[in-house]
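Researcher: Next entry: Class I SAM-dependent methyltransferase family protein (Haloarcula limicola).
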Amino acid sequence: MGVPSVRVAREDGEATRTRLAEADLVDDGYDITVEDGSLYIPVTDPAAVPDVFDVVEFDAPVREGQTMPADLLGFDPSYERIGDIVIVDEDDPERAREIADAIVASDLPVEGVLNRASKIKGETRVRDWEVLAGDTTEVVHREYGCTFALDLAEVYFSPRLATERHRVVERVAAGERAFDMFAGVGPFVIPFAKAGATCVGTDINETAIEYLHENAERNGVTDRVTAVCGDVREVATDYEGWADRVVMNLPHSADEFVETAVSLAGDDCTLHYYDIQSDDDLYGPGERAIRTAAEPEYEVTVETRRAVRSYAPGEQNVVLDVRLRR
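Model: Predicted structure:
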């Protein structure tokens, strides 16, 4: 059976493996293999692999002595990993328990198994979880050289957005002033600060802000991170015209905060606007909302229109990178 793997030239193998390992994407259950001058590095989540890499199906050998969940189940279960916790999404309680037991009995390096027990809900965008193995919903997640402590039952976090976050981080320059309007535990703020930016992150979830403080300390960037618990529309009055970069990662509701985002913008500011829209008009609603709020005070240039991932049939999670110049 084919295993999702990154295929690279042999001479680029170590650099690629290191980059994938920093994003916690290397699948340790399979051997890295050389064939016909190419190196094949098995990965845990092909959707999270940066677009610059070639992901293929490759018959990678199971690491010698490794027992995988599929070996015990007789089928290949669907799951994802955040740190040392494995997440499954099963409606059938018996099947969920069977998969969890196999994961624990396998050689995967895990401390717990959680099953999604509800959809994302409420103002803080959290969900309910069924703990199938272990005794906690708290985890330490590693992503592109940063570490994030978080409690999945108390805060919103998606490891599937790792590649998108890294794409934005690579644009950040030392000395920038960056404002994350819905910062959560800091998956944008922390790497921005590590890149040398001065950052402000706000969130209405007090627990998320507590983790943001902790994660700034974990990553050695407390001197460049200000974390504020509160409604960003109120906090923004202290930062009008301050930001060189603003992140708006609140799909479904971002359009309600566009005027606040524009008020934060300095003379030359890049806005990263995340939205969920129908395939019929993926980018139009967001672009129109930004232009309505920013023009004519700012010259508005849409530099990137990008579908981040499929959200539902006929809908996409998209991003607009928009430059505002006064």
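Model: Note for the record: DSSP finds nine helices and 17 strands in the chain.
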